[in-house]
Amino acid sequence: MKYETVVGLEVHTELKTKSKIFCGCTTEFGGDQNTHVCPVCLGLPGVLPVLNEKVLEYAIKVGLALNCDILPFSKFDRKNYYYPDLPKNFQTSQYDLPICLNGHLDIEVGGETKRIRITRIHMEEDAGKLVHSGSTISTSDSSNVDYNRTGVPLLEIVSEPDIRSGEEARAYVEKLRSILKYLDVSDVRMEEGSLRCDANISIRLMGEEKLGTKTEIKNMNSLTALQKGIEYEALRQAEALEDGEAIVQETRTWDDSKGMTLSMRKKEKENDYRYFPEPDLVPIVVSPEQVEAARQSLPELPDAKQARFMKEYGLNDEDSRILTALRETADYLDATVKAGADAKTAANWMLGDLSKMVNENNLTFDKAPVTPDMLAGMIALINKGTISGKIAKKVIVGMWDTGKRADVIVEEQGLVQITDTGAIEEIVKQVIADNPKPVEDVKSGNGKAIGFLVGQVMKASKGRANPGMVNQLLQKYLKD
């Protein structure tokens, strides 16, 4: 490749507090337009903001989870710009003294681990929302403004330009979203806008150190849009340079229906915002005791949990990564093991049949009708020989549909595994008699043919015959 893609991400996550960052208005998603507002978040004359202490607590937790330094002294600033969704004509944010600095996040792409540096994390208030008449801002004739979101607390997590592809950007945001979910500081629902991405993209000749002119794609609200937007924009810039055009520093939007980025406006520079300290809020002083208390309150995070699953449960790297991506999934496995199930067996059911049902019903494991105790109970029946693995596939569907435990379903439907040698023997004899060709194949040295006969015995027994006993009896009679 002639050009190298260089990407830095600004990830905005709404915090899961009950009230807004500087007032008591609800942060609940939805509601009639302009009903979750008050004089403070609307910026009416004479009002004074007060910092929501929970926002600071969450910011410290996120900073620690992302390996940042927590600044003992930070402050809020006014970021001045004019846009219809900003009622005060400035955003209360943090500029030169943010709450967190110098972190990093390790991602895995293509089997290799890569470290993405995090420049800073700062607290700020969200803006309102423009409600466009068309599908995108560029296709709309008019826009209305809903200020319900104004003042909802945000953390902006800014990376260094260490990302080199849309795939790496996707992996970074996926990992970041997982950590935020583990911390329970945000619901990270991209479809509702509680996690949004701005991507700064430039390209340069391979081997060069100097950064090219960047463009910014604003407010991408899905992982697919993020990856596709970066890939398209890098290609667009490369083609422009090849045609002798100069890259213009601008803000662009991703049009999903067209599969392309579109120009919105000239990109502002830092000094255009005329930052100055917020006079209505006192500086923030964080003590070492506060930081240590936050550190002690952190849950076991995805990387640590993945390492534990590999060490304690004997799972491989890929399975551990999948099972720890969501806290609900990891907690489900831990609870199933605690209920007495073998970890590897439980993991196999979770990655197979149970995962399929969870995904088809658009649920997470904590909402699954089959609880960890129920899964452990079913695995216990398999281990006792009460049911076979094949019968268990029917049982787990029955548990999902009815909410009944495995032993109840087995009893009600008569699914107890046949372990009586005489009963299985009769079925084996009949199958041998009915299938002379496969029998002859086995006797001629075709070992694979026995699999067909096993299948016929299992079919005749409606899956209830003990597979081990079936194999033993077939081997016995086929030798005669």
Automatic annotation (TrEMBL):
Name the family the entry cites. Answer: Belongs to the GatB/GatE family. GatB subfamily.
The protein's name: Aspartyl/glutamyl-tRNA(Asn/Gln) amidotransferase subunit B
Functional description taken from the UniProt entry = Allows the formation of correctly charged Asn-tRNA(Asn) or Gln-tRNA(Gln) through the transamidation of misacylated Asp-tRNA(Asn) or Glu-tRNA(Gln) in organisms which lack either or both of asparaginyl-tRNA or glutaminyl-tRNA synthetases. The reaction takes place in the presence of glutamine and ATP through an activated phospho-Asp-tRNA(Asn) or phospho-Glu-tRNA(Gln).
Matching entries from NCBIfam families are given as:
gatB, PRK05477.1-2, PRK05477.1-4
Annotated signal sequence range = none
Electron transport: is it a keyword of this entry? no
Relate the assembly described in the record. Answer: Heterotrimer of A, B and C subunits.
Q: What is the lineage of its organism?
A: Bacteria, Bacillati, Bacillota, Negativicutes, Veillonellales
Where is coiled-coil annotated?
A: none
Q: Which domain of life is it from?
A: Bacteria
Query: Which InterPro entries does UniProt cross-reference here?
Result: Asn/Gln-tRNA_amidoTrfase_suB/E, Asn/Gln-tRNA_Trfase_suB/E_cat, Asn/Gln_amidotransferase, Asn/Gln_tRNA_amidoTrase-B-like, GatB, GatB_C_1, GatB_Yqey_C_2, Gln-tRNA_amidoTrfase_suB_CS
**Keyword set includes Nucleotide-binding:** yes
Query: Which keywords, in A-to-Z order, does the entry hold?
Result: ATP-binding, Ligase, Nucleotide-binding, Protein biosynthesis
Identify the residues that the record assigns to the Asn/Gln amidotransferase domain, covering every copy.
Answer: 331-478
Q: What is its EC number?
A: 6.3.5.-
* PROSITE patterns listed in its UniProt record: GATB (PS01234)
Q: Which reaction does it catalyse?
A: L-aspartyl-tRNA(Asn) + L-glutamine + ATP + H2O = L-asparaginyl-tRNA(Asn) + L-glutamate + ADP + phosphate + 2 H(+); L-glutamyl-tRNA(Gln) + L-glutamine + ATP + H2O = L-glutaminyl-tRNA(Gln) + L-glutamate + ADP + phosphate + H(+)
